[in-house]
Amino acid sequence: MLSVVAFAATIGWMALSDARRGYHSTRGARVIRFTLHSRLLRRDLGEILVTPRGGGRGRFLLVWLHGRSAPPSSALSDSFFQALRALGPRAPDVLLANGGDHSYWPDTALARELRADGARLTFHIWPGGHGNSYWQPHLGRYFAFYARSCAA
Is the residue at 123 inside a domain? Predict the structure, then answer.
């Protein structure tokens, strides 16, 4: 009886842990958390870099900008990791950029700063809501678009 209770508790803990972090499996991707010391924002920010299986050298970097009041980790989901895995060797490394709790990334100041540092980029602000209910079903198509458009 004790072993049944221990087994049930373990399964319950695993389900709770997965629900809390937002996904069950990284599908072979590595999730790397690090601190960025931002000169622009004058503070430290916790960032997340996701490298797909076989990721790293030679892959392009997709900078994912979260919405207002959403932490960077809000993008991590089973559909996120499934979309990366589906691209195989064409999958980008993904930086889930953190601008803080009340940041709103569609800001031309960010584009200006990146261009001042020599980055080549295209920047658009589109109307409409882009919460998780929008992104989760569309991640595969977006990642495939970026893979086609940004591949070396």
Answer: no
